[in-house]
Amino acid sequence: MHGPSEVVDPAAFRWNDEDWPGLAPDGLVIYELHVGTFTPEGTFDAAIARLDHVAELGCNAIEVMPIASFSGTRGWGYDGVALYAPAASYGGPEGFKRFVDAAHARGLGVILDVVYNHFGPE
Question: In whole angstroms, what is the distance from residue 23 CA to residue 118 CA?
Answer without folding.
Answer: 30
